[in-house]
């Protein structure tokens, strides 16, 4: 594992218990060779709150606000929502590794990450105003692409901060806490936005202001050292260097490559599992999609609880036991079991059980896999941001491709208007299990 820079102290303005907790604590277990000193409670709290704020600002539009605006601007054209979110996803895919690479190379008084956290927040706020005031669907789509560029890159930069500061034995814990707040934030955002239905500007800006405050506190209170005097070599930024931002050599970084491929397969299975939930429930209950909307909401609530429990249990235990691969595999197995239960479920009780199992497995897998990714991250000192952006491809690419591939399996053996959801969910379980096996069996440098 490449050496990481030591964690700088918190700003003196951060008073009280957070300031005291930000330093190294007596009795804390040591990290691995080259690890930074333990991060204090102050840094962890600010980081988790920043994640909460960004997800509230960023995911709330996907959950409700964008749909309301599309319905206002183009009634009866729900398909436009898919086009807008897809185009925004493309902008995030292109921007995240580039912003990560530029932050790696930045030499400023504010450090490497903070200038981009500030600029990303400003871009995100402008995007929310554009989304609220957009006069056409085209402008709405441009606003969402801008939101992905701003808020989406902040998510990657916060993970890069963890790569800079967290020793190995704290990465699972922080990933677990982040995994808990991620599903909670948009739920709160939807409740807030739902109460502001008559005012599009407030629907976007009120959740967005939570993100501004959360990221602002992180930027102001978590000190990052001046990077102008760094001795790390930086190669000239040429067109070839820019193109190489999006690729890496698996032969030089095999553990990162296997982890990337395992996450890719898991996310492919997960997207198969989640994309058609409403249609699957309607088919199994022999009702219309509108009639099962309440049941789907219940499933969503059960899934959030299960994901939180899985993330906490998996992340904390993986740190305590100093094991990653077994938890990644366990999460994949539990998710696969949930997918198979859903595939064979004749009615609602087993569907609920399958959703709960699947989301618990997702929580375990996601939290521990993020920690494992930080453990095997190549070139931690010089290229952490770039590699974290590349790692994000393992999520964004399956989310874009899997919904296009799924109909091929839905039509296998189907008659009339029926769809073969049994096959789709079995394949989803198999892909997720294969992803977990690849990580557990092929990653060598992490236990």
UniProtKB/TrEMBL annotation:
Pfam families on file: MFS_1
Region named Disordered: 1-36
Keywords: Membrane, Transmembrane, Transmembrane helix
SUPFAM superfamilies for the chain: MFS general substrate transporter
Lineage: superkingdom: Bacteria
Membrane topology designation: Multi-pass membrane protein
Annotated transmembrane regions: 46-68, 80-103, 115-132, 138-160, 172-195, 201-222, 260-283, 295-317, 326-344, 350-368, 388-410, 422-441
Domain Major facilitator superfamily (MFS) profile: 46-447
Listed Gene3D superfamilies: MFS general substrate transporter like domains
Location in or out of the cell: Cell membrane
UniProt protein name: MFS transporter
């Amino acid at each position: 594992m490449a050496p990481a820079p030591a964690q700088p102290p918190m700003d003196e303005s951060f008073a009280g218990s957070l300031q005291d907790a930000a330093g190294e604590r007596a009795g804390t277990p040591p990290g691995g060779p080259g690890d930074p000193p333990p991060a204090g409670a102050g840094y962890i709290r600010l980081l988790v709150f920043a994640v909460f704020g960004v997800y509230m600002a960023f995911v709330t539009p996907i959950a409700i606000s964008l749909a309301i605006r599309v319905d206002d601007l183009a009634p009866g054209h729900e398909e436009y929502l898919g086009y807008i979110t897809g185009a925004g996803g493309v902008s995030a895919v292109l921007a995240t590794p580039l912003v990560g690479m530029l932050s790696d190379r930045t030499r400023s008084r504010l450090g490497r990450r903070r200038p981009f956290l500030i600029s990303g927040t400003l871009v995100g706020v402008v995007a929310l105003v554009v989304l609220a005031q957009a006069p056409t669907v085209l402008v709405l789509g441009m606003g969402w692409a801008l939101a992905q560029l701003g808020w989406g890159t902040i998510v990657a930069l916060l993970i890069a901060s963890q790569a800079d500061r967290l020793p190995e034995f704290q990465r699972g814990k922080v990933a677990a806490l982040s995994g808990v707040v991620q599903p909670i934030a948009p739920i709160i955002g939807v409740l807030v936005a739902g109460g502001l239905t008559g005012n599009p500007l407030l629907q976007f800006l009120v959740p967005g202001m939570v993100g501004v405050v959360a990221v602002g506190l992180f930027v102001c209170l978590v000190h990052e050292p001046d990077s102008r005097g760094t001795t790390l070599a930086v190669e000239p930024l040429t067109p070839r260097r820019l193109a190489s931002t999006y690729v890496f050599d698996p032969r030089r970084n095999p553990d990162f490559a296997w982890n990337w491929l395992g996450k890719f397969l898991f996310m492919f299975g997960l997207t198969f599992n989640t994309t058609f939930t409403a249609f699957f429930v309607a088919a199994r209950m022999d009702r219309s999609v509108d009639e099962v909307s309440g049941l789907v909401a219940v499933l969503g609530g059960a899934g959030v609880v299960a994901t939180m429990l899985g993330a906490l249990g998996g992340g904390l235990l993986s740190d305590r036991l100093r094991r990653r691969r077994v938890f990644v595999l366990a999460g994949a197995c539990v998710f696969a079991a949930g997918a198979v239960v859903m595939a064979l479920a004749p009615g609602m009780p087993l569907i609920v059980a399958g959703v709960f199992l699947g989301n618990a497995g997702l929580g375990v897998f996601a939290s521990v896999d993020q920690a494992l990714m930080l453990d095997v991250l190549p070139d931690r000192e010089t290229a952490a941001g770039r590699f974290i952006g590349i790692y994000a491809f393992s999520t964004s690419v399956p989310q874009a491709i899997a919904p296009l591939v799924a109909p091929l399996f839905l039509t296998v053996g189907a008659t009339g208007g029926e769809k073969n959801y049994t096959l789709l969910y079995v394949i989803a379980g198999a892909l997720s299990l294969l992803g977990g096996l690849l990580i557990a069996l092929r990653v060598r440098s992490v236990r």
